[in-house]
């Protein structure tokens, strides 16, 4: 499947034109992971966005009191990891590990994405609006869940 088709289905890029999706796709670099290989590590500063294009990854969090890992979710083709890295260079909230072989991901560097957004502010506006919408949904859902 062509990369722009995968990007088109990702909520983060919802609202971008075909031309804008091509610009985003031009930033992508492919990374191949073997089963068990770590893509990101919880607590380490992040400056990359990842898009799974083949295989599966698992998202794990370390529970500090127990020094154990808890699997939060498995992600597959078309799903994103690290979108908050486009907003800040804060620490990763989870560890992500490949669970199939091979697992292929597309990588977008934050600095390259920022440069694209400076050239085309519409892309930046749409992506940041989509991130804000997603965060708003997650916060609202979390607050409703905690209120029970």
Alpha-beta content class: alpha+beta
Q: Quickly count the domains.
A: 1
Q: At the first level of CATH, what is the class?
A: Mainly Beta
Radius of gyration: 16 Å
Number of strands: 8
Give the full name of the CATH homologous superfamily: Jelly Rolls
The stretches of 5 or more residues where confidence is low (pLDDT under 50) are none
Helix content: 25-40%
Helix and strand succession?
Answer: HHEEEEEEEEHH
User: How would you state the average pLDDT, rounded?
Assistant: 90
The percentage of residues in β strands lies in: 25-35%
From the spread of the alpha carbons, the general shape counts as globular
Number of helical elements: 4
Outline the structure in words.
- This protein is of the alpha+beta class.
- The chain has a single domain, classed as Jelly Rolls.
- It is 35% helix and 29% strand.
- The protein has four helices and eight strands.
- It has helices at 3-9, 18-26, 110-119, 121-146; strands spanning 29-33, 38-40, 48-54, 57-63, 68-75, 80-81, 95-98, 103-109.
- The strands form two sheets. The protein has a four-stranded antiparallel beta sheet with strand order 1-8-3-6.
- α3 packs across α4 (121-146).
- It is globular.
- The termini are far apart.
- The mean pLDDT is 90.
List the helices and strands and how they pair.
Blueprint: H1 3-9, H2 18-26, E1 29-33, E2 38-40, E3 48-54, E4 57-63, E5 68-75, E6 80-81, E7 95-98, E8 103-109, H3 110-119, H4 121-146
Helix pairs in contact: 1-2, 3-4
